[in-house]
Design goal:
ATP binding; RapZ C-terminal domain-containing protein; RapZ-like; RapZ_C; globular; 4 strands; alpha/beta
Length: 126
Amino acid sequence: MPTVELVSFGYLHGDPPAAHLTLDLRHHFRDPHVSPELRYMTAHDAAVRQTVRSTPGIPALIEATADAIVAFTRGPSAGPVRVAVGCAGGRHRAAAFAMALKPALADEGITATITHRDLDKPVVDR
């Protein structure tokens, strides 16, 4: 069985990690950071996960990303597949997206791990 590693990160904390597929959620999906009640929360909080998942376009992107990952795992290489998901700070959109992607992959019979590179870093003032 192929291994899939999901890595969430924030562009404001450094370069994206090396990956087979990199998603940039910064410009097309609303940022929970702009809501004062969500700013200091993270994707570990249900309110953040719900806000991200209810963003128009996110459910379709989760499905499309899962399909793309399935295609990578069926390629001729038996190596692991790494997917990087980025947003501005790495605390909200990217982490919540990765958390939602993992069960979508499980529905396809793929076990994934998640690493949140920047989830626990301080909020970036913008």
